[in-house]
From TrEMBL:
It is a single-pass type I membrane protein. The lineage of its organism: Eukaryota, Metazoa, Chordata, Craniata, Vertebrata. It comes from Sus scrofa. SUPFAM superfamilies: Fibronectin type III. Residues 1-25 form the signal peptide. GO terms for molecular function: erythropoietin receptor activity. This is Erythropoietin receptor.
């Protein structure tokens, strides 16, 4: 008996664990954080509409939101859909609260009924009155809402004022070569504004130029399927990446500029020294001497104009001359 109980207890314990796991495991139709974020992103566009999105073209979720005080539940509505050429099928509705205080109703279509490039007709009616609530015809390939790009990295390029950005496509995204991206560029200083740059389809890197030196920039990337084969919505922004750009005064350029200035100053000093006599004469010209007009003025008469008398000689247009008059 003891051995039988010893062999039975491990099996019972395993069964209890399986039952507990099944009880505690979340329902496959219960919303997760990613669904909540994407639904909130779309609800901001039109909360009174029937909104649908697919993540990988193999799924489709449609939902709408109502005021929390409406007092209605999933049993008050009927959700049905029809693929082209097929009969109408019902879709089980779910209900849950939102962070904004409203109530969200949603339905997830089976993978077998998510065919791209085929019209899909959706219809929501009120059970009590049979009145139509929503009616839409969509193509699943035109309502793609991707996850944000991952692994965004920013680094300085070799050229001054350039930054290289690299990232990974959204996880699980179909046909990465047909994804277009948009880069958001902002600075810590609000006066710098926000810039956005679109990237060609399939590229997961870009080089940004004409950025201010010595400025901290923050970059984010979002994704969207490229038209015309696909359509949909911009994803949420990726995790940000920040980088401080190099200063406009490159140390090497600054050093070379100082050396050049010193060389020019040295050449200017050498040129002044080689022409110092000419410059001195131009700056301090010599004073003319009357010795040339009065012979012996400084040698014989010691610069005295009154010795022996002076004659004033002048003529029109000629300078005034003083000439000594000999005594009789």
């Amino acid at each position: 008996m003891y051995h039988f109980g010893a062999t039975l207890w491990p099996g019972v314990g395993s069964l209890c664990l399986l039952l507990a796991g099944a009880t505690w495991a979340p329902s496959p139709n219960s919303p997760d954080a990613k669904f909540e974020s994407k639904a909130a992103l779309l609800a901001a566009r039109g909360p009174e509409e029937l909104l649908c999105f697919t993540e990988r073209l193999e799924d489709l979720v449609c939902f709408w939101e109502e005021a929390g005080s409406a007092g209605v539940g999933p049993e008050d509505y009927s959700f049905s859909y029809q693929l082209e050429g097929e009969p109408w099928k019902p879709c089980h509705l779910h209900q849950g609260p939102t962070a904004r205080g409203s109530v969200r109703f949603w339905c997830s279509l089976p993978t077998a009924d998510t065919s791209s490039f085929v019209p899909l007709e959706l219809r929501v009616t009120e059970v009590s009155s049979g009145a139509p609530r929503y009616h839409r015809i969509i193509h699943i390939n035109e309502v793609v809402l991707l996850d944000p790009p991952a692994g965004l990295l920013a680094r300085r390029a070799e050229e001054s004022g350039h930054v290289v950005l690299r990232w990974l496509p959204p996880p699980g995204a179909p046909m990465a070569s047909l994804i277009r991206y948009e880069v958001n560029i902002s600075t810590e200083n609000a006066a710098g504004g926000v810039q956005r740059v679109e990237i060609l389809d399939g590229r997961t890197e870009c080089v940004l130029s004409n950025l201010r030196g010595g400025t901290r920039y923050t970059f984010m990337v979002r994704a969207r399927m490229a038209e015309p084969s696909f359509g949909g919505f911009w994803s949420a922004w990726s995790e940000p990446a920040s980088l401080l750009t190099a200063s406009d005064l490159d140390p090497l350029i600054l050093t070379l500029s100082l050396i050049l200035v010193l060389i020019l100053l040295l050449l200017a000093v050498l040129a002044l020294l080689s022409h110092r006599r000419t410059l001195k004469q131009k700056i301090w010209p010599g004073i003319p001497s009357p010795e040339g007009e009065f012979e012996g003025l400084f040698t014989t008469h010691k610069g005295n104009f009154q010795v022996g008398g002076l004659a004033v000689l002048s003529r029109p247009g000629a300078p005034l001359l003083l000439w000594p008059i000999p005594r009789l």
